[in-house]
Design goal:
Rossmann fold; three-stranded parallel β-sheet; 341 residues; 7% strand; 14 helices; two-stranded parallel ribbon; Tyrosyl-Transfer RNA Synthetase
Length: 341
């Protein structure tokens, strides 16, 4: 009897995600996105890119620190555990194919689709000091669609608040296939991959942000981590050590939700509500957990910081790998649109 033929391994789903280069990342970036990237790279074919063109959609005049921000961020990706042998890391602006697909998609995308994206008006209100009356800002969801569709991504990992961006990408792909596909799917519609996000606020309870100076960097010095956590505000009703508190009113409790196990959380709840522990005692497990988590990041980052050519080489290899895939898609797109003369 012939030996059974082993089943061929199932192809891994392709995942695409990007991040604007803001320089060295903070813990909010890690828990909001990077932690999921590290997990996804083991089971999926992942393309992770530095969205430097996207940075220019809102900060088009701020170019002095752009290169440094790009590579500082890549170092944090690598430090967090992104493996360049498992995932393709690249820089968006190194691939003009993204811009070409962006331009071609723009020919048939209704203007009203871009104007209705929820974050469009929200960011105009939030960034009141900037002139955002530019096509680059209005069109960034379409550029984002090009970033995704050019790799024919099956999945796009996002939180619930970002799902509308994937939905417009699906609409753009659907319209392109209707206009030019001739019954064929040239650009597959990606699916939303809702990812579990551990929301970590800033030190003051607001969203963690470098601009608000309420962040803890991924590679923060341990002494600085301790200083920042010890100075965090707590329950405003706990004025004295003997006052009973409520963890739900305390920003430190949100850190316990992310960093502490159930026993420690129970200890905090009991100690706070009965005034059995002081606020500095409550903060110490958070300090210890953050410093412990950061130790391997700092070690891995040091190896890359001492050899910047290695980081550039990793990006170079990833960019060329992405280029091969992007060029193949653009040949198909041009063919579908009749641009092969």
């Amino acid at each position: 009897m012939d030996a059974p033929v082993p089943a061929s391994p199932r192809p891994r789903s392709r995942v695409v995600s990007g991040m604007r280069p803001t320089g060295a990342l903070h813990l909010g970036h890690y828990h909001g996105a990077l932690k999921n990237w590290v997990r996804l790279q083991h089971d999926h074919e992942c393309y992770f890119f530095v969205a430097d063109w996207h940075a220019l959609t809102t900060h088009y005049a701020d170019r002095e620190d752009l290169e440094r921000n790009v590579y500082d961020m890549v170092v944090d990706w690598l430090a967090a555990g992104i493996d360049p042998d498992r995932a393709t890391l690249f820089i968006q602006s190194r691939l003009p194919e993204h811009a070409e697909l962006f331009a071609l998609l723009a020919m048939g995308t209704p203007l009203s689709w871009l104007e209705r994206v929820p974050s469009y008006k929200d960011q105009i209100k939030a960034l009141t000091g900037r002139d955002l009356a530019t096509y680059g800002f209005l069109g960034y969801p379409l550029l984002q669609a090009a970033d995704i569709l050019i790799y024919k991504a099956a999945l796009v990992p996002v939180g619930e608040d970002q799902a509308p961006h994937v939905e417009i990408t699906r609409e753009v792909a659907r319209r392109f296939n209707h206009l030019y596909g001739g019954g064929n799917t040239v650009l597959p519609e990606p699916a939303v991959l809702l990812t579990e996000v551990s929301k970590l606020p800033g030190l003051d309870g607001a969203k963690m942000s470098k601009s608000l100076a309420n962040d803890i960097a991924m590679r923060e010095e341990p002494a600085e981590v301790e200083r920042k956590i010890r100075r965090m505000p707590t329950d405003p009703d706990r004025v004295r050590r003997t006052d009973r508190g409520n963890p739900e009113r305390c920003p430190v409790w949100q850190f316990h939700r992310v960093y502490s196990d159930t026993d420690t959380q129970a200890w905090v709840t009991q100690g706070c509500t009965t005034a059995g522990i002081g606020c500095l005692e409550c903060k110490q497990p958070v300090i210890d957990a953050i410093v412990r988590q950061q130790a391997p990041w700092r070690e891995r980052a040091e190896a890359y910081l001492s050899n910047p050519k290695q980081v550039h080489w990793i990006v170079e290899v990833g960019t060329e790998r992405a280029r091969a895939r992007a060029r193949q898609t653009m040949r198909e797109v041009r063919g579908a649109m009749g641009l092969v003369y």
